[in-house]
Write a structure and sequence with these properties.
mainly alpha; globular
């Protein structure tokens, strides 16, 4: 049995909580184009990409070119999937925005 009220309530809460979250909208806007199994693979791989490069930004030298190369390779792995490509673009933007070079 579907709980219609709960579905609407949960959907509205997600919408309201993520209104200005471009990563959320990149996922939501492209998730239907993939199978559930592929969504799990893409979100796992893109999160691992983010975790690796988020940690790397703390190092003395940050290899922007290598990060871009790895994002292209990951996008190709999923046959240029919109979900993969758009999520990676948002994650790279987040890393760039948060990047603070050591002085």
């Amino acid at each position: 049995m579907n709980d219609v009220k709960s579905t609407f309530s949960n959907t509205y809460k997600l919408y309201k909580d993520n209104l200005n979250n471009s990563l959320f909208w990149a996922i939501i806007g492209n998730i239907k184009s993939e199978t559930p199994a592929k969504v799990v693979q893409i979100t796992t791989d893109t999160y691992n990409f983010y975790a690796k490069w988020d940690k790397a930004k703390e190092q003395e030298e940050f290899d922007w070119g290598q990060m871009r190369t790895e994002s292209i390779e990951l996008t190709h792995k999923y046959n240029d999937s919109d979900l993969c490509r758009k999520v990676l673009a948002e994650l790279m933007n987040i890393i760039e925005q948060e990047f603070k070079p050591r002085r």
